[in-house]
Predict the structure.
Amino acid sequence: MTGWEQNVTKKLATLIGKIARFALYPLAVVLVVSATYHLYFANKIIPGVVLGGVKVGGLTLDQAVSKTKQQELATKKEFTLWDQNGKNYSINLAEIDLAYDWDLGVRRAFEVGRTGNFITDTKDKLAGFVKILSVPAKYTYNKDLLGGQIAQIRSAINIPSISAGISLAKEGKLEITPEVYGKSLDEKALYDTIRICLDNMDRTDKTLAVEDDNPQYTKKDLEGIINQAQNIISRPIELSYQTNRYVLQAEDLVNLIRIGSSNGKAEINIDKTAFENLHTKIASDLNKLPLGQVVKEQDGRVLEFKIIQNGLEIDRGKMYTRFKQAFFGTEKSFAIPVKEIQSSKNGTEYGIFTLLGRGISKFTGSAQGRITNLALAAQRTNGVLVAPGKEYSFNQAIGEISGKTGYATAYIIAQGRTVLGEGGGVCQTSTTLFRAVLAAGLPITSRHPHAYRVGYYELESPVGFDASVYQPSLDFKFVNDTSGYILIQAATDTTTNTLTFDIYGTPDGRKVEISEPKLYNVYAPPAALYQDDPTLPKGVVKQIDFSAPGGTAEFTRKVTRGDELLFEDTYKSVYRPWRAIFLVGTKTN
């Protein structure tokens, strides 16, 4: 190497050394600053952190806890919400069991910039010098109590909208009832507002978000269909099956109108709920389950069973189609479509193999009208088959109780008095069936005791084993929870004055235990009541009801299968004391 080359190389090395030393100065500064930063904030929250609205950057954990707790003590325990009409509502935080956990919150604040992710932590540490790093407070509260306060606000603000409708006015004319515009609280927005206020201990006034609740249909919408609706109700619709007739007048047809929409325009449809109610009413008259009969049995085992009558039911699909045609068309009458429920000739598929339960009652001393009624009701539920999983209704099985359906006039209890009425004695039938179902171990879904103790029902049974029916409100019902059908078979013996109900079906090993009834809170009957009767000759006194003490009867039933408890139920009957009643003749001729 020449002297010149050596000189150049030496100068170049010197220059490179100077450049290297110059480049290391900033790096050294960064390292010193970083080391100082981490050393200073080693046990402190990094700058810029705000916890629950409180500045805690640069504080130790203990200092941050102390500061946030002091701030909470100085903060109001409620905040005010204003609606669009200038009315205010308060959210009382003391009444929702609000509790802040500042120890947990401070630990969360301390974790800012210390997640272990180099990029995220560096970003947060630098950002803390120029902006707020907000950390929501940690707290708990009672959601139900807060929900109660919000419910009060909702009830004060919400005004439900009401669509314009069609109603029947005078002389069969329809009129449009105008719509009502409503208001609705935006509850999601309210909960969001409350959450933000709790997160940041913000107690400043807020504005409630209230939305318009517009009706689906306005009066203008219905003006285009009012004439069609008027045509629909202008003529009655008549439905018939054999001797049964059902006539729907204008007031009935209005209830069957439902306003719908098509392509943004209002249109008239058939209200499905109203039609279902109509169908149910007619079906209760016309639908008939198949009837069966145990012809021969031995020791409770069925040796011969047969179907004696096929069932009948309304064809639902055809019924709706024909009704729709009559509703919107000009032909306003039609025959109700029905279909027969057919069975095999011997009925072997029903599973009627064994006597499951028997109920007995006596009607000794009953008037002829009462005997007629209980025997008729028994006849109309005799032979009924109940499918697996289905519920049996006594009222549906016997049909309407009235003079036109064959029931005689007999004494009944009405409004605390013994008076003549149609169907007196039918309750003895439901009572006897109740006893059979109890013994069979089937689940009972509806049973109502009598208001007072009836002597007939205690001739062959302890107190409390009765079931009252009164159409349409009181019914006796049970469910067939076995794998096969249940057959109800009734017999009325006027020689021994005995009514018997037998329940047949498929045995499944269930065992029934019924306790002896307990009778307590016994009250003596009041004095006898004497009522004038213009149908009896003057001077004749006839006792039609007998005194009975009041009291409460209670018994339990436990149904098991092997070691399995199927169900256990309690039957409680509260009877009021009943007086003896005498009819006093006032007839002079």
